[in-house]
Write a structure and sequence with these properties.
about 170 residues, alpha+beta, Jelly Rolls, two-stranded antiparallel ribbon, Acireductone dioxygenase
């Protein structure tokens, strides 16, 4: 895991875009974004059980696994969105970037590699991309009644109750 402020410069989304300004695990936690390195699946199972997760799937994001739709999928994951439910992603192989919005509405880029796990709180704006290796194998964990549909950012969404709850919690 490595987290830093996104440089905001033009260029492919899969490039590092590292501004050189690092962001610590504690600063991520202040945004409600929790990071764990879990080498054993047992640790993931325990965390999932504690937080009431009952469903999961695994996805391989790569040209080999997705064929012609790979480039479209990667663009789709990179649309800024939120979920009304917590989101857990566990990386089983390869690597990728989760970008989350800071309190100042800047992008914080989080590089996740094998055995890294990230919890995103409901209501946080974020996006995902593969890196230059074009390969990630991830486990997506869902609660019992998944509300993980991506809701793309819009002014309507700023008044969404889950969004407002997140903004309030992260200001406490
Ligand atoms: C998301 O919510 O953006 C995703 O699930 C991306 C694919 S999982 C690596
Ligand atoms: Ni998402």
């Amino acid at each position: 895991m490595k987290a830093y402020m996104y440089d905001g410069l033009p260029g492919d989304q899969r490039l590092p875009h590292d501004s050189g300004r690092e962001v610590g695990i504690d600063a991520l936690a202040k945004l409600g974004v929790l990071y764990y390195h879990l080498p054993e699946i047992d640790g993931v199972n325990q965390l999932a059980a504690e937080r009431g997760y009952k469903n999961r799937d695994e996805i391989r994001v790569s040209p080999e696994a997705m064929g012609d739709v790979y480039e479209d999928k990667v663009k789709m994951f990179f649309h800024e969105h939120l979920h009304e439910d917590e989101e857990i992603r566990y990386i089983r192989g390869g690597q990728g970037y989760f970008d989350v919005r800071s309190k100042d509405d800047e992008w914080v880029r989080v590089l996740l590699a094998k055995n890294d796990l990230l919890i995103l709180p409901p209501g946080i704006y974020h996006r995902f991309t593969t890196d230059e290796s074009n390969y990630v194998h991830a486990m997506r964990l869902f609660k019992d009644e998944p509300k993980w549909t991506p809701l793309n950012r819009s002014s309507d969404l700023d008044v969404n109750t889950h969004r407002q709850q997140y903004v309030q919690d992260s200001n406490d």
